[in-house]
Amino acid sequence: MRLAYLATLCGFLVFMTADTSRADPLRQLTGSLPQRVMGWVVEGQDRFFDDKTIFDYIDGSGEVYRAYNLRGCLSRVYSRDGGPSIVLDVFDMGTPVDAFGVFTHDTDGEAVAVGQDGRWRPGWLNFWKNRYFVSVTVQEENAQAFEAALELGRQVDARIPEEGERPKLLTRLPQGGLQAGTVRFLHHPIVLNYHFYFSDENILELSPATDAVLATYQRATGSARLLLVQYPDAGAARRAAGNTRRHYLPDADADGVARLENGRWASARLKDKLLVLVLEAGSREFAADLMRETAH
Amino acid sequence: MNEKRHVVTRRDFLRAGSCLAVGSMIGLPLLEKNAFAATGTSRVVLIRHDGAVDGGGNARADILSGMLDAAVAALFQVSDASEAWRAIVKPGDTVGIKTNLWGSLPTPPALEDAVKQRVLAAGVSPSRAAVDDRGIRSNPVFEKATALINMRPLRTHHWSGLGTLLKNYIMFVPSPWSYHGNACESLGSIWNKPEIKGKTRLNVLVMLTPQFHGVGPHHFSKTYVWTYGGLIVSVDPVAADATGARIIQAKRNLFFGEERPISPPPRHIEAADVTYGVGHSRPERIELVRLGWDRDLLI
After folding, report:
1. Are residues A153 and A188 in the same domain?
2. How far is B126 from chain A (nearest CA, A)?
């Protein structure tokens, strides 16, 4: 009886393990990744981290991935005699929107045709595709390793069959004067404050349920920052708009525009569940133009 | 949201910036509260040796020990390093030596050993001296510490601009992430906590192979470290960090061939001076003593 019970239990555990593996897209993707690239071969065991253990792997900036709802992270090392190691990190962000978002946290670099929006800086390739953010790093300068890193990126790209859609909120950004590489998509106040310090409290009520996009503009009338926040319900949007008026723009005039202490201009307007904030525009005219083009 | 508390916004900083002359390396200006002693200076010793690091990038223990001794002797203005160490710790002290174990650029074990040996040589009981980083909140020596020695390598950092001596104490708090706002501006407040304030006897900022730029999730590439072969030693962590920051900034400008500000700006250094009164950040308040190898000094 006991043996039968143990056999059943073991069978159940094996089934559950196999089922978990099948159900976990990151583990499925991992199984298809190359073992060898241009002489570099997989070294040691793959490591997996979740939103709690990510800090064991990435000190400090692990918080960025949590701010974009990290589901899991694969870390794999490729090595070759006489060459530097290549580290592949694949972050499963759960959705294309969050994969895109975490990609926008750092958009420097030269555009390369790898994945979606691939970027290359000496020693670091990164791109997003579908629900994944992919990073390939080489920790010292080596031309062969750099080429192998790019090739590894191409092979990972090829094993993620479908591209992902960018956040719909991006379509609300006016295109005139939008500066390439300045678009940041985010949910979390700590990420907003990293790119543009706004306040020490979460007065915009940002959360995993809110989508926000921050962008920089340059036109003949000067420069400006624009922040759009899309709320899941009208109540949250009204509270955030009220907080903004009370704590950030208490001196706004009848048009909702305020002159800042540095001589620049800011305004806020609520349009249904979308809060539009023009931040630090170079002129009142520019602030009004951006607001009109966005909150129409 | 707390309605009673004053919410600090960007506009508070802009307002303060309109009436406050600020340092050169910060982004948003600071809210001036209680500047560190309006008079006086902090002594900082920068010592370098062209053989401090071997071809593999590892610290050479014998040279490092000599540098450490020469630096503390110069810092305390005595002829004998052992005399300086006896001024730093007393036989009755319980001494926590806060190190940094970050995988890509840790405090060299040779430096940990050298400092601990000197603490013991000054008469501290072996059971009352410990080296630790991430376990300090549960380490009995740190819990009972009457004296702290703080040491770590200087590097750029994702949230704070620079991983500094000031930032090295973030492991003393239960929720380090709560200090990440505004480029970790409030790190200096940790130094005013009752269990820490006034206990730090020596700070050693390791400048053997500092990191001046970072990329990727791990914020590290050997492309962006260089052999500087130095230690910065001071009783004042703010002055030591400010000195190190100037070197990092100079190296960035040199490497990139243009003005390339540390990003995000390491606001916490000046905030530790201007807002939290922990030490001196401004060059005119720092007495910098340069010793040893002077090639490509950058400061």
Report:
1. no
2. 30
- The answer to whether residue A3 sits within a structural domain is no
Mean pLDDT estimate for chain A: 91
**Regions in chain A scoring below 50 on pLDDT:** 1, 3, 9-20
Query: Is residue A121 in a domain?
Result: yes
Query: Do A44 and A153 belong to one domain?
Result: yes
Among A residues 43-72, those touching chain B with beta carbons less than 8 Å apart: 58-61, 63-65
Q: pTM for this structure?
A: 0.82
CA nearest B13 in A: which residue? A261
Query: What ipTM does this complex have?
Result: 0.80
Nearest to B214 by CA among B204, B224, B206: B224
Query: What pLDDT does residue B242 have?
Result: 97
Q: State the CATH number of the domain containing residue A112.
A: 3.40.1000
**How many structural domains comprise chain A?**
2
Q: Which of A61, A66, A77, A251 to mutate to test the interface with B (most CBs of B within 10 A)?
A: A61
